[in-house]
């Protein structure tokens, strides 16, 4: 079907690219030779390189009988012997100018003295006397014997000599010194015998334009079949249908796709889509660059951060002035290799099947959402496989196959800041530059979270920028309404942990939890002149950046916002004992050590009711404040449900510079039992091991690249010290059950945790909730937060749940990004109260 040059794009099924626009699919008509064909075979010669020949090669010459250039992309010339049915093909590229000729040079022989001037070079060895030559509208070899002259893909056919297939009658038998040429006016009566005469070969390849002159090319020729264009720095003329346009947001260009292409990729392996960048970003996008228009573009080919593009001035983007066939969105599965993705770069694509959100960290900054093909996010390899193992390598390979990023059709950096006084003027440094904007895909009413299913309701364009394969919407998506989003997202938020997971083996009598409170400091940045801040869009400090030992909130307002989220999350946990990580060690600031902890408990009780919560006082086992870190671990509990047994404990004799906890927080412990009724004593231990981000002092602490990050030896030593210390404390207080919670900074299959597994401890998170995780980093999910139990505590366990309120949420919801955007995303809800997810374990009070 042909449509007017301003008809809109064909789409898949009932999906339209613009509201209210009905789109139709193109059809492909059969070819078969026609006396009115635009391009026909003009000359055939098979004696090249033979004895007595002048030319060293065989050739086939084509002629364009029309007054307009004709694109040959995707076509081929093909040859079979006089009686054969096995055809060989030479693919064609480029175009023939109006009234021009195009020569395909074929196999070279030992004789002859001159090379055939050519536009394309093939390798087919043709007979010098009898054979069959066809012009075909695809590169697929023909599969026919005596019926090719009427086959649908064939545009023209010449049978010469004793050929068994021809149009009308065969052309003359040839020799080493004669070719079959059409009569003077390139007559085409569909009778080879009448239209061709034998004579001296006269190959006339199209002339080469002067250097720098734009030459007509297909989009496929511009893209090529490799990772970069074969025509970089060349000036070209291309035509196509506009499939996506970005007049705002920084792209300042549009996507162009060859008319009539889709829903399958080209068998040539070259893409039929390309990005057109309009130079002069301060000027409006060209008026013809509207989705659905058929345009001609003259410009220079280049590569921009891995993306093939054609740069054109506005004057060089014009309406093509022709009718055209619409394009259809590709409906193939997302390719698993870079080569497969290169073959569809720049083309309209309709994602089908399962897609899962795997990364939301870049959403706040760049308006992009990391996706994984399939029903689960990408995984940290050491979460599910031993470090350095073939299984771990297989996870990395699987991640590469499944990853793609949904972009917003813009290059805006929504959190861009400057450290330059020239930019910031008298404003605090760093100053936020784009605070008047709102990133796409960030919402409290329709949140986009790691682990959620993404459903595509409209096509996208396959794009590659800044080292990532991307889906670009056909128009910029603008937050917070996200009206032009091509995808919708499942909302997986829950108001509380999953009781089904917690009560898998019966109703829990008690619940314990692990929760990282994200540098909860009550000694604030604005109280120390040495502290430097991160600033919001109104130049108010939000969090401590550098310059001092304080962390977390900048001033009282920021602390209030942080506190209300922490309180909301902890109260909703409905746990009876909670281990806390990353809370201020107030002793380092000259206060009683539990000052910040007491403030958090007071806030919890203000919301939940007086006396609901209490904290476990810091142990006298701890080393001097000089040997402690500025952040510490702590415990809170609900006195109505559990009671403390004796004093709190700590592993306080391993904090020297070369000892196990010289670069980590000391483990703390407290024995508990159910407040009323029969109950087993259990020892609750809170841990916070050395982070992966920097190397500790021990051999092997350097990052070896096995997936465990830096400081593996430090964490192994910490696990060994914990293993050796805990049983004695439990025995001292008669605690049969041992429950060790915390941020181990180790994924589930890593070496530090293996120390504890071998000592008889079980990770209840992976036992009871194996497909959910507590942390997301670089788009990979895994658990750094674990609750480990001994055999008796495992018998007490009823189930466990990772409550995914933090790691999968956009950081825009965090108190530390308050007032970064023109939309206020802050709420008192628990979502993004931290960067780690809490883990909750249900326990029976007593087991035999």
From TrEMBL:
<dbReference type="Pfam" id="PF00932">
    <property type="entry name" value="LTD"/>
</dbReference>
<dbReference type="InterPro" id="IPR001322">
    <property type="entry name" value="Lamin_tail_dom"/>
</dbReference>
<protein>
    <submittedName>
        <fullName>Predicted extracellular nuclease</fullName>
    </submittedName>
</protein>
<feature type="region of interest" description="Disordered">
    <location>
        <begin position="174"/>
        <end position="226"/>
    </location>
</feature>
<dbReference type="InterPro" id="IPR006311">
    <property type="entry name" value="TAT_signal"/>
</dbReference>
<feature type="compositionally biased region" description="Low complexity">
    <location>
        <begin position="174"/>
        <end position="207"/>
    </location>
</feature>
<keyword id="KW-0732">Signal</keyword>
<feature type="signal peptide">
    <location>
        <begin position="1"/>
        <end position="31"/>
    </location>
</feature>
<feature type="domain" description="LTD">
    <location>
        <begin position="27"/>
        <end position="162"/>
    </location>
</feature>
<dbReference type="InterPro" id="IPR047971">
    <property type="entry name" value="ExeM-like"/>
</dbReference>
<dbReference type="InterPro" id="IPR036415">
    <property type="entry name" value="Lamin_tail_dom_sf"/>
</dbReference>
<dbReference type="InterPro" id="IPR036691">
    <property type="entry name" value="Endo/exonu/phosph_ase_sf"/>
</dbReference>
């Amino acid at each position: 079907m042909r449509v007017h040059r301003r008809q809109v794009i064909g789409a898949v099924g009932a999906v339209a690219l613009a509201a209210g626009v009905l789109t139709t699919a193109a059809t492909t008509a059969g070819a078969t030779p026609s006396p009115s064909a635009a391009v026909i075979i003009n000359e055939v010669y098979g004696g090249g390189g033979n004895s007595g020949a002048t030319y060293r090669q065989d050739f086939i010459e084509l002629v364009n009988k029309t007054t307009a250039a004709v694109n040959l992309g995707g076509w081929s010339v093909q040859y079979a012997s006089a009686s054969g049915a096995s055809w060989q093909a030479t693919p064609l590229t480029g175009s023939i100018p109006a009234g021009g000729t195009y020569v395909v040079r074929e196999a070279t022989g030992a004789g002859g003295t001159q090379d055939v001037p050519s536009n394309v070079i093939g390798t087919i060895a043709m007979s010098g006397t009898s054979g069959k030559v066809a012009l075909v509208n695809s590169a697929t070899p023909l599969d026919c014997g005596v019926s090719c002259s009427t086959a649908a893909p064939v545009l023209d056919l010449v049978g010469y000599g004793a050929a068994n297939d021809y149009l009308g009658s065969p052309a003359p038998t040839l020799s080493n010194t004669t070719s079959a040429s059409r009569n003077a006016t390139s007559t085409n009566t569909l009778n080879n015998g009448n239209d061709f005469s034998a004579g001296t070969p006269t190959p006339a390849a199209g002339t080469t334009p002067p250097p720098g002159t734009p030459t007509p090319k297909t989009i496929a020729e511009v893209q090529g079949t490799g990772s970069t264009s074969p025509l970089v720095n060349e000036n070209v003329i291309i035509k196509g249908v506009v499939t996506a346009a970005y007049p705002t947001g920084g792209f300042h260009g549009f996507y162009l796709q060859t008319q009539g292409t889709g829903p399958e990729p080209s068998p040539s392996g070259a893409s039929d889509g390309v990005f057109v960048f309009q130079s002069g970003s301060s000027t409006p996008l060209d008026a013809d660059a509207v989705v659905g228009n058929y345009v001609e573009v003259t410009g220079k080919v280049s590569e921009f951060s891995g993306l093939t593009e054609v740069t054109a001035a506005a004057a060089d983007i014009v309406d093509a002035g022709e009718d055209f066939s619409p394009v259809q969105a590709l409906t193939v599965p997302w390719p698993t290799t870079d080569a497969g993705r290169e073959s569809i770069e720049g083309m309209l694509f309709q994602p089908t099947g399962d897609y899962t959100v795997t990364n939301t960290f870049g959403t706040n900054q760049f308006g992009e959402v990391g996706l994984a093909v399939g029903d689960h996010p990408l995984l940290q390899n050491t979460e599910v496989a031993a470090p350095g193992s073939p299984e771990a390598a297989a996870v990395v390979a699987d991640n590469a196959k499944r990853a793609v990023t949904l972009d917003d059709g813009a290059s805006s950096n929504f959190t861009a800041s400057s450290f330059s006084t020239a930019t910031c003027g008298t404003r605090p440094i760093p100053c936020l530059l784009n605070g008047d904007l709102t990133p796409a895909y960030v919402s409290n009413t329709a949140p986009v979270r790691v682990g959620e299913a993404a459903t595509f309701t409209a096509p996208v364009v396959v794009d590659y920028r800044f080292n990532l394969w991307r889906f670009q919407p056909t128009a910029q998506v603008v937050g917070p309404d996200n009206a032009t989003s091509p995808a919708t997202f499942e909302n997986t938020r829950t108001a509380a942990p999953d009781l089904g997971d917690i009560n898998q083996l019966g109703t829990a009598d008690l619940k314990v939890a692990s929760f990282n409170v994200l540098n909860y400091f009550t000694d604030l940045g604005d109280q120390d002149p040495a502290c430097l801040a991160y600033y919001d869009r109104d130049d108010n400090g939000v969090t401590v950046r550098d310059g001092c030992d304080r962390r977390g909130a900048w001033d009282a307002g920021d602390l209030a916002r942080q506190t209300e989220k922490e309180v909301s999350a902890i109260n909703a946990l409905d746990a009876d004992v909670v281990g806390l990580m990353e809370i201020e060690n107030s002793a380092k600031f000259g206060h009683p050590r539990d000052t910040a902890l007491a403030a958090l408990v007071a806030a919890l009780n203000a919301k939940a009711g007086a006396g609901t919560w209490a904290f476990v006082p810091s142990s006298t086992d701890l080393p001097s404040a000089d040997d402690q870190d500025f952040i510490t671990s702590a415990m809170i509990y609900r006195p109505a449900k559990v009671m403390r047994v004796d004093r709190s404990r700590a592993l306080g004799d391993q904090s020297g510079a070369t000892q196990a906890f010289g670069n980590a927080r000391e483990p703390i412990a407290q024995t508990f039992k159910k407040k009323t009724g029969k109950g087993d004593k259990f020892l609750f231990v809170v841990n916070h091991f050395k982070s992966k981000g920097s190397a500790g002092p021990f051999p092997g602490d350097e990052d070896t690249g096995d997936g465990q990050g830096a400081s593996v030896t430090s964490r192994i030593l910490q696990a060994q010290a914990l293993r050796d210390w805990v049983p004695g404390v439990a025995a001292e207080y008669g605690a049969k059950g041992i429950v060790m919670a915390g941020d181990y900074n180790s994924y589930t299959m890593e070496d530090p945790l293996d120390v504890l597994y071998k000592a008889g401890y079980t990770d209840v998170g992976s036992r009871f909730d194996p497909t959910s995780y507590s942390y997301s980093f670089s788009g990979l999910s895994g658990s750094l937060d674990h609750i480990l139990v001994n055999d008796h505590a495992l018998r007490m366990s009823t189930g466990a749940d990772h409550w995914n309120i933090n790691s999968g949420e956009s950081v825009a919801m965090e108190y530390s990004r308050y007032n970064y955007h023109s939309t206020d995303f802050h709420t008192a809800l628990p979502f993004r109260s931290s960067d780690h997810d809490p883990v909750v374990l249900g326990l029976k009070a007593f087991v035999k």
